[in-house]
Amino acid sequence: MDELPAVPAAGKPMPIGHHHAGKKVVAAKAARAAELARLSTAGDLDACLRLGEMYEDGVVVPQSLSAAASFYRKSATAEDEHKRASALFRLGRVCLSEGSEYDEKEALRCFKEAAEVGHTGAAAYLGYMYVEGVGVTKNGGKGLDLLRASAAKGNPSAHFYLSGMYANGQGVDKDADAADYHLRIATEKGFGPAVLLTSVQQATTSLQDESKLDRAIDGLRSTVRRQKGEANAKMKASASFNLALLLWKAKLAPRHGKNRGRETPDPTTAKLLFGEVTTLLRKAAEEGMAEAAFCLSSLYQKGVPPLIQASPASAAHYLAEAEKGGHAAAKLKRQLRSALDEIETVSANGGHGRSRVPSSLLDTLKKAYDGGMTSAAQVLAMANLEEIGSVLEEDGARFEALALADKVEHLLETAANGGSKKAAYLLGLLLSDADTSPLHALSLTRVDLTRALKMFTIAASDGDNLDALYHTAMLLLHVSEGGGGEKEGGREGGKEKGERQGASTPESFTEWEDKALIHKRVVELLIWAAHGSRSHMPLLSTPPHKYKFSGGHAGAAAALACVHLGTLGLEEVPEDDDKAFAYAERAAHLSDPRGMSMLGEMYMQGRGVEASLEEAKVFFYCAIDAAQEATRQALSHHLRPMPGKELWQGVLPSLADVVGRCQVRIASILTSEEKEGRAAFELLQLASSYPHSSVWKAEATLAMARARVSGFGVSKSLAEAVQLCDAAAKMGHAYAEVEKKKIFEKYKQSPE
Q1: What angle do CA 292, 297, 303 make, to 5 degrees?
Q2: Cα-flanking dihedrals φ and ψ of residue 308, to 5°?
Q3: Which of 328, 333, 574, 695 is deepest in the core (most CB within 10 A)?
Q4: Coil, helix or strand for 308?
Q5: pLDDT band at 3 (very low <50, low <70, confident <90, very high)
Q6: Which of 69-83, 252-266, 280-294, 598-612 has the lowest mean pLDDT?
Q7: CA distance 284 to 294
């Protein structure tokens, strides 16, 4: 006989995992094992059979299938045919087990001999081998006869296998009633796999019935507790995994769909349930269940605050375990992550182009996407964005770039519909032509604010994406004021050029007659984004100096400053200089040029703070520098701008307003202080050089007219002053004509 593992001595029981028997019971079993070992050495074949079962189960002694097989072989020499059949059946089962010296031929021999003397379990296994063609030529008819004969004698495993055959139509006509009958018999007889399957089926069909749901959960918990020993480890892992999924779907998942209307557990109960879920998944993963490891990877990747925090290291560990277990989605997810890292590396190094992305990774992405994996769509979209950068370097390749842009849009929408909030956010940027869009100002995507708003809403649904919250609020405000789907900067031209116009205003918002409802939602979203989390949102009674921020979105803080200054058109929100100053200061702290500009305005006007022209001037200069830095950072994520879309003074179009206003304000301060007149006039010239009409361009032009009259920082020229007044009037400046009349009245004659 092979050398066998030592049997634990009495009083020194082996650890048995989560077995809940008392210490005395465990010690008694260990003592029994030691006694059986002594008897087997003396030639007791019954003791050999019992020891074989112990080594196969692995409850009291460490599992050893080779030791179990050795004891079963010795027990199979018994003269009593029933004892011999029992040993042969167990030996055949071990020969077909994973982790043993797999031997189909010996298993077939053992089952045949045992079945010949009436062992129903052996007959059931023999029937299975004939049906599946394991170790023998496939013979479905003979296998079915053996299974039916065994089931007729009450064997639960035969009933269970017949249930599967009838359910799937394997070798027999599909018959749901027959499948249910055989499964019920197997379950009533306590056959582990049948009990587990029945519990899972009951759980799946009882999500709407709380009482049935609780019974299903209790049934799965009972199944988990009953499965002991290494022999039942896989079944226990399966039961643990299914119980974890049921608890998550029925008790913890967001309350929508089938869960709508179900009572949400209180925080303490939720924490306990989530602890049970993660424990069950870990136990299943430890037993090699790849699906459980993949679920843990997903949980740690995103986190479920406050129940579990995101942990990239844990996510990577469990993803590797799932891939090691043969989980196809885990392998593909790792490949997708590698592809995205490679693409981001190419972009970070400034090397846009298909040649820089490995073709093998692109092939993997395309195969995954063609195979229906929506998560591959997002990464494939990023790869196509990089291709656009390469295409634009070629002459006459605009049509190809447009086709690629359409492809990117389609891929991102596919990923967004598949649940990717990141893809929804990126698509929102493309459709709104936001400054942070990688295709900004290239006129490659159709601007559609209706769809952009929908995508931003999806991306902001869990409250984690502050950028999405901010864009949702600003687009919501835009459409509430009658803004349509078209926006300057999108595709222009007709069908001849293969380019299209934008869409219309979202019907879901034009139907709202009360703008106050929309404005209230806009303010809520901005406050949420500005403070960084819902938990830090202040009460109406909270004084500004006690506001709390957790990171927060600079643009949202700047927008709230405008709201409280009364410049954003939300009449429902009363002006409050203290709140405006608090939010402007927060935006400036986050290096937002708009926030710095507003602080300059407030110091200049003495709103919410003591007036100080020197402080105002400092903030205006800082705002100009911040706008140029923000532009440099944004352009690092953009593809090459198209001709005619050049930057003005090194800033993006959306920040030109900040720079122009700051230049006009600085010039105004310098003029009032009667110093640095030349510098003031040069700033006004820069502000007035903006190629498009704007309020501050008109203001700069009129200020230059005044400088020409006074001769401060520039030579006097009444004729030039009048021309500048006329130019300002054409831009819509309300006081341009008044200023011109003052010039005539002062000099009692026309300058001409």
Answers
A1: 120
A2: -150, 135
A3: 333
A4: strand
A5: very low
A6: 252-266
A7: 11
Helix axes 466-480, 515-531, angle to 10 degrees: 160
β-strand partners of 651? 648
Helix, strand and coil percent figures for the chain, each rounded to 5: 65, 0, 35
**Is residue 434 classed as helix, strand or coil in its secondary structure?**
coil
Categorize the per-residue pLDDT at 339 as very low, low, confident or very high, splitting at 50, 70 and 90: low
Rounded distance between C-alpha atoms, residue 523 and residue 543, angstroms: 17
Token pair, residue 578, equals: 């203290």
Q: Give me 147's structure tokens.
A: 């299974």
CA-nearest of 626, 623, 628 to 652 is: 628
pLDDT for residue 341: 65
- For 271-276, which contacts have Cβ atoms below 8 Å and span 24 or more sequence positions? 271/307, 273/247, 274/304, 274/307, 274/308, 276/244, 276/247
C-beta separation of 598 from 658 below 8 A:
no
The closest alpha carbon to 28, from 42, 16, 40, 43, belongs to: 16
Read off the pLDDT of residues 143-159 as tens digits, 9 standing for 90 and up: 999 999 999 999 988 99
The residue that leads in pLDDT, 541 or 151, is 151
In what helix (H) or strand (E) does residue 328 lie, and over which residues does it extend? helix 328-348
Cis peptide before 306 (omega within 30 of 0): yes
Q: How far is the C-alpha of 643 from the C-alpha of 646, rounded, in Å?
A: 7
Asked whether the CA dihedral 263, 268, 269, 274 is positive or negative, the reply is positive
Q: Report the DSSP beta bridge partners of residue 304.
A: 308
- Single-letter amino acid, residue 291: E
Q: Which residue has the tokens 């093998």?
A: 360
Q: What span, in angstroms and rounded, lies between the C-alpha atoms of 688 and 130?
A: 90
Mean of the per-residue pLDDT values for the chain? 76
Centroid of chain to Cα 241: 22
- Cβ neighbour number for residue 513 with a 10 Å cutoff: 7
pLDDT value for 739: 86
Would you state the structure tokens that stand for residue 464, as one six-digit string?
Answer: 């984690």
pTM higher than 0.70? no
Section 455-469 average pLDDT = 83
For residue 26 the two structure tokens come to 């465990």
Q: What angle do CA 354, 359, 362 make, to 5 degrees?
A: 85
Contact 165, 128 (CB under 8 A): no
Give pLDDT, residue 208: 53
Spatial contact of 623 and 616, defined as CB atoms under 8 Å apart = no
Q: How far apart are CA 425 and CA 455, in angstroms?
A: 6
Question: Angle 375-391/328-348 helices, nearest 10 degrees?
Answer: 30
**Dihedral sign from CA coordinates of 365, 368, 371, 374:** negative
55 within 8 A of 90, measured Cβ to Cβ: no
The residue among 718, 692, 690 whose CA lies nearest residue 705 is 718
Per-residue H/E/C for 709-726 = HHCCCCCCCHHHHHHHHH
d(CA 554, CA 558) in angstroms, rounded, equals 6
Distances from the Cα of 729 to the Cαs of 132, 486, 685, 714, 720, in angstroms?
91, 29, 17, 22, 14
Tell me the backbone φ, ψ of residue 648, rounded to 5 degrees: -105, 120
The pLDDT tens digits for 359-393 are: 666 676 676 666 666 666 776 777 677 667 666 66
For 389-431, give the secondary structure using H, E and C: HHHCCCCCCHHHHHHHHHHHHHHHHHHHHCCCHHHHHHHHHHH
Q: Beta partners for 308?
A: 304
